Model the fold of this input.
Amino acid sequence: DTGVSQNPRHKITKRGQNVTFRCDPISEHNRLYWYRQTLGQGPEFLTYFQNEAQLEKSRLLSDRFSAERPKGSFSTLEIQRTEQGDSAMYLCASSEPGPPGEQYFGPGTRLTVT
Amino acid sequence: GEDVEQSLFLSVREGDSSVINCTYTDSSSTYLYWYKQEPGAGLQLLTYIFSNMDMKQDQRLTVLLNKKDKHLSLRIADTQTGDSAIYFCAESDGPDSGNTPLVFGKGTRLSVIA
Done:
């Protein structure tokens, strides 16, 4: 296992289109997190799962965003009716139950909405 | 609410020590983490510290924690050009610290001058 993987690495879409990103965590990790990072900022938490259960959603996660982890393995993050403000790097991380709960990050998916 | 603050820039000469500082506000935070992000890449976990510790050392990295002042620092000894990156301080907040989403600072951009 080489770590957390994310696909695609880059996505360019037109405003109003829907996009879906995928995250494959480290295989033995049952926690999976989604964060968003914009230029010059640190990552901001969006949502996280323990196995297939979605435990928490940030108020940053508008109703255009939905995340799933149907079998407790990979996860998808969908953004409907994209807006230019959605342009960001979307990061996925996974961890074993803590503490210390070290989170290991994937390379991210960079979304550009034109 | 939770807040993590860092100075934005630090420039050091190769071979010198770098000290990156961070302050946090959540008094119940017990786990604090340092991450490194190189251009275009995801976040790499460097180390973490538990609040019952004042110091943790790992090769060239030393973490100091002043819980009273809510101040965390990362010292990099013998800084190399490969250490040039953005360094993020993060806390896992709340009574279940170590099992919660991370709150990140904005990051400190370290530039190493050869």
The two ends of chain B are 40 Å apart (CA to CA). The CA atoms of residues 6 and 106 of chain B lie 7 Å apart. The interface with chain A takes residues 4, 30-31, 33, 35, 41-45, 48, 50, 88, 90, 92, 97-107 of chain B (CB under 8 Å).
